[in-house]
Amino acid sequence: MENALKVQKGRPREFCVDQALAAALGVFWSKGYEGASMTDLTEAMGITKPSLYAAFGNKEALFHKALDLYEAEKLEYTREALKQPTARAVAEHFMRGAIDAQTSACDPKGCLGVISATACGAEAESIKADVIQRRASSQAALVGRFEQAKRDGDLPDHVDVAGLTAYLYAILQGMAVQAGSGASRADLERVVETSLLMWPGR
């Protein structure tokens, strides 16, 4: 009777959750949300579909967890950029950090956020909304940093801070698309150098 009352423990997982999530991130990053099939994911993760569902939930939940990992590991440079001493240095750190992330030899090319935000179809709507919401949060932080630069006299009074932020993001997203299309590091470096020549200053 005593044994019958004991709760049976489930079998321990036979895979590393962190490694599996990193593998899923690689698939989503290279194929986008809609382009990544469950077969692609399970093969890359080295697990079965039931194991995927048990550990991560459905494909959508897995993507959100992969996006969390992407932001934590691959976008660290964006948080460091905000700490730079001038607005120009912030922009430069953003762009050069993006080049490192987008042209890494061990990661897919381009940007997971850009790939996924351009996804279409009803299935991807919540994914697109999540990516857009995360980007809006990052842009708000950048607007705040540039507003501070304006108060500090680091940016001219006439500068439209929201417009400047949108301009920087347009450059970053364009670089991501180019990287995903085969642009070289040197090509992207030229984009950064040209953008910095146009940066507003006193």
Automatic annotation (TrEMBL):
One of its GO terms (molecular function) is DNA binding. PROSITE patterns: HTH_TETR_1, HTH_TETR_2. Keywords: DNA-binding, Transcription, Transcription regulation. Residues 37-56 bind DNA. Residues 14-74 form the HTH tetR-type domain. InterPro entries: DNA-bd_HTH_TetR-type_CS (IPR023772), Homeodomain-like_sf (IPR009057), HTH_TetR (IPR001647), Tet_transcr_reg_TetR-rel_C_sf (IPR036271). The keyword Phosphoprotein does not apply. Transmembrane segments: none annotated. Pfam families: TetR_N. The keyword Cell membrane does not apply. This is Transcriptional regulator, TetR family.
